[in-house]
Amino acid sequence: MSGNLAVLLYLAAGILFILALRGLSSPATSRQGNLYGMIGMGVAVATTLLLRAPSFSGFLFMVSGVAIGGGIGAWQARTVLMTEMPQLVALFHSFVGLAAVLVAGAAFNAPQAFGIGAPGHIEGGSLFEMSLGAAIGAITFSGSIIAYMKLAEKMSGKPLLLAERHTINILLGLALLGFIVLFATTESGFWLFLVILVAFVLGVTLIIPIGGADMPVVVSMLNSYSGWAAAGIGFTLGNLALIITGALVGSSGAILSYIMCKGMNRSFVSVILGGFGGETAAATGAVEKRPVKQGSAEDAAYIMQNAGKIIIVPGYGMAVAQAQHALREMADLLKKEGVEVKYAIHPVAGRMPGHMNVLLAEAYVPYDEVFELEDINSEFAQADVAFVIGANDVTNPSAKTDPQSPIYGMPILDVEKAKTVLFLKRGMGSGYAGVENELFFRPNTMMLFGDAKKTVEQIVKALAH
Amino acid sequence: MASDTTQQMLETARRAAEATRQLADQAQSYSDQLAQVAAAASSHGLTGGVDPVVFRLAIFALAVFVGYYVVWSVTPALHTPLMSVTNAISSVIVVGALLAVGVDPNADASGGAGWAQWFGFVALGLVSVNIFGGFMVTERMLSMYKKKG
């Protein structure tokens, strides 16, 4: 195959990837988009194999690598629970990061195979791109592993604050830049090794101080990093498919991080600096003793049966209790009685962007009943019941009224405007931000304490009578 | 007594000024060198052909903009599948892994090719997890999104 044809085919792969993302603009076209993505990947792999035909033994080596990895990937994809998606995505990001490091290492050891010179005589520009790609890849790898462990609760989600952590990070960053320059000018493998080592450490120290509440931003951010790492390697190899994909993924992750930050009214910088979500103990020091109105599942069923319009507000607590299937059953029964049921999703509900939508889709909730904050917020005033299940901070009116509150300025769902607010909660504990929710003590609020799944099942039973 | 101290202070100030002047001279010569290098580089770019890296940068910059507009058009309901599919497509780094695995191990005596092959093999395994896992889990999620009725 000629080099020019290969470049055009890589370009075609890049365009197919653009179409894959374009397909996600609506659920109706999304599966078509995913198919484009798979075709693009096939084109890129086939082009590479045709361009540099491997020996038979080399080909067998490749097939075994793909079989092992592909088998594990396919098994993961089939068995993963939808609640575990955030940690799976974090783990996958780490693989892209590590692959970038390894490909950079391979390109350094055998530059002739990548067309960037001979061992010991690699072009200066390629050396720079190679070490940059390896550095971003290494940060992505170790950072994603930390994010994975925090999300999978293999380590505490609380921010781990090292003394002088900002100084440490700045020094590590400067050392990293210095080693990249030394590597690009001397072409000594020792400096590349140091670049990778320091980047691994930096990935850990950057993510470790960030608390569980900010994980959606971190996962999006690492998504972006994995893209930039791929682009860096793309420049080294002069491969258009990699450069285009890297740019797409890099900007995609950056946009998602921005959306998540806006959803929490936090600046990107303050998230990166970390420390948020650790003050819970201090904030709940003064325990509220005011009375709240408690209700039973039967009360809730009675109120909802007689309602005209209900808006359900699911939060991560619903996913933890695995209550989504029971919830959909409840909604079906209510719809049969002529009640209008809609779902309202806050941008930062769940542990990653769009997490709650997937969980509801898994429970067969039609996607045209699920609405984003800005599309449904004005409807709470006409709703008879706001049914809040496993959410707290995203409904807290103090985000609007109390400038002293840590969540002040965060966009919230206006559940307070509904005639009756039903809160399903395990106890009176406060949310991630550690803020008391004024709404619990209002006369039109009814609290339903207990496991969300059991409570909803009891409501279903009462409705079926 | 007082005049002595004044004398000392003046002396210190004079020395400081001298040191600053030397520093400024040095900075001047560095920036001159930099300007020469930059001029040499740009004249090379104008007379000799354009470096292919520049073309790659152009494509990269355009792709960032395409990505920006395409991703803003993604419906928020599909942000999780967006992340898993971007994960899958960024595994196109598989082309680098394939090139590394395909290296002829006898190509050079230094043993670098052998290392490259093993690095490539591990990278190939990792990105295969991502390619198969990423596209399949995206497909699984997207098949769940159903319309009313």
Using the CA coordinates, give the radius of gyration of chain B. Answer: 30 Å
State the helix count of chain B: 5
Which overall shape of chain B is indicated by the principal axes computed on the Cα atoms? elongated
- The span between the termini of chain B is 100 Å
Tell me how many strands of chain B there are.
0
Strand content range of chain B: under 5%
Shape of chain A: elongated
Integer count of domains of chain B: 2
Could you spell the SSE succession of chain B in H and E letters? HHHHH
Helix content of chain A: 55-70%
Mind explaining what this structure looks like?
The complex is a heterodimer of chains A (465) and B (149). Chain A has 19 helices and 8 strands. Chain A is elongated. With 465 residues, chain A is of the alpha/beta class. In chain A, 61% of the residues lie in helices and 8% in strands. Mean pLDDT of chain A is 89; it is low at 278-286. In chain A, 55% of the residues are buried. In chain A, the strands form 2 sheets. In chain A, strands 5-4-3-6-7-8 form a 6-stranded parallel sheet. Chain A has a two-stranded antiparallel ribbon with strand order 1-2. Chain A has helices at 3-23, 27-51, 56-79, 85-109, 111-114, 124-151, 165-186, 189-207, 215-237, 240-264, 268-273, 280-283, 297-305, 316-320, 324-336, 355-362, 373-376, 398-401, 452-464, and strands spanning 117-118, 121-122, 309-314, 340-345, 370-372, 385-389, 420-425, 445-449. Chain B has 149 residues and is an all-alpha fold. Chain B folds into 2 domains: 1-74; 78-149. Chain B is 79% helix and 0% strand. Chain B is built from 5 helices and no strands. Chain B is elongated. The relative contact order of chain B is 0.07. The chains are: A alpha/beta (465), B mainly alpha (149). Chains A and B meet through helix 1, helix 2, helix 3, helix 4 and helix 5 of A and helix 2, helix 3, helix 4 and helix 5 of B.
